[in-house]
Design a protein that fits this description.
The protein is α+β, with helices and mostly antiparallel strands. The chain is 44% helix and 30% strand. The protein is built from two helices and two strands, in the order ααββ. Strands 1-2 form a two-stranded antiparallel sheet. The longest helix is centred in the N-terminal third of the chain and has 21 residues, at 8-28.
Amino acid sequence: MEFSKLSEHEEEIGKAIVEAALKVHKELGPGLLEKVYEVCLTHELRKEGFQVDRQVDIPIQYDGITFEEGLRLDLLVDG
């Protein structure tokens, strides 16, 4: 399987996500509900200027039909 190289912007997003996740985990520690970490991670990424959407539904196609409730992303950063 071949993968294309990430763009500079994709690399920037990935680095920002990891740094923000570490910051949130260091501050809050383990054991809280996922939603708490999601809200805080979203806040940190938005502070850095990223557009962040939460709980984004991604439709799936099966047998010629589109199902709107297919997948759900926790976070979508800069589209």
